[in-house]
Amino acid sequence: MTKSFADIIGQATHLTRSGKLTEATALIQSRLSGRAAPIPDDAIDGTFTRLNEPEVPPRKPSAQRTKLSETLRKIAAGGMPASGFGGTKDATLPQGAEFRSLTHVGPHGTRTYRLYLPANRAARMPLVIMLHGCTQTPEDFAAGTAMNVLAEEFGCVIAYPGQPSGANAQKCWNWYRPEDQASGTGEPAVIAGLTRDILRDFAIDPASVFVAGLSAGGAAALITGCAYPEIFSAIGVHSGLAVGAAQDVPSAFAAMRNGARGKTIAKAVPTIVFHGLADSTVKPDNGRAVIDQMVGRVAGVRKSTEFVKSSGMRQAKRTQYRTSTDRTIAELWEVEGAGHAWSGGSAAGSYTDPTGPDASRHMLRFFLDHGKV
Predict the structure, then answer these.
(1) How far apart are CA 327 and CA 231, in angstroms?
(2) pLDDT in tens, 95-122
């Protein structure tokens, strides 16, 4: 990468963090017009929108949400809040539970990951692979989604692969690159290989293996689940995009800003989608496009809609899509007033909206209903 091109990408990244996606896209397109240069690996997930949370009762100063910069400093120093058992201190775990640090090494690449083994264990447990968003870490994502708490309740194993900055400057999964959008290649193959390691080494039910993620992680989870339907029984996409929604940096920005239909997939995999209707980073049309990809592969689908609201929480429109045999093939949650953040997540992690319906619980409920027969 030439120095001038690196400067352009640095400027585009700064614009993206400031929410100026149009300007960032124009800058990159002006540099890449007629290009022969390779596509850079810089951040493609945009800037998360921090939500104003008027519905949340005021907290005491000691419990107020820390800034992202402070959170990242804590991560770098080896510490995270204990909520959701996402921290690095094993003393915060239930007795008998483990939060291991492991490494997958395979022909397509190497990734470190955290693996939560609940105290509540069975002979054959479900497995959920959780892919974080840009700038996040496995520990941060575990804390924010509180998925480890649910793992204790339901007896599940949860894995959190980490995207290193060497693979993407902002630790985004590279969902927009053609080499990371199919089976047998790139990051989908790495995640599938990591999953196979866990299936080999731990007491996992191979019929109950699932993948989910947020934003860039949500797009990567969808790609991986569709690329390996023989491994994954269902998929969870939060604030993500359709398979094939982009092929390079400019089209990724365009898809995030305007929405993109994606490509036809080979096989439908049961999928649950959460998306905030006030998401200014990844347009809500992208969540609907994910549903259309799945539903479009199944004949005779019927849909039903309801509005869900609890006291003090955001209202959501829930649409279920059922086959002629009354099997739910897809479920879409559109959360009113929510931005680019994990719905119902814990303030102990970054990019969460504690006032939304509990995406973690609903995803896990959907997953456990869709184990392979």
Answers:
(1) 20
(2) 999 999 999 999 999 999 999 999 999 9
In this structure, are residues 24 and 253 in contact, taking their beta carbons and an 8 Å threshold? yes
Which pair of tokens denotes residue 167?
Answer: 């693979």
- Residue type, position 90, single letter: D
pLDDT digits (tens, 9 = 90+) for 233-282: 999 999 999 999 999 999 999 999 999 999 999 999 999 999 999 999 99
Contact 265, 243 (CB under 8 A): yes
pLDDT value at residue 297:
87
Residue 28 · residue 12 · CB < 8 Å: yes
pTM for the full predicted model: 0.79
- Burial call 258-273: b when 16+ CB within 10 Å, e when fewer: ebbbbeebeebbbbbb
- Concatenated DSSP letters of 79-129: ----GGG-SS-GGGSPTT-EEEEEEEEETTEEEEEEEEE-SS--SSEEEEE
CA distance 308 to 336: 10
**Pairing relationship of beta strands 316-322 and 302-308 according to DSSP bridges:** antiparallel
Beta strands in 2-97 (DSSP E): none
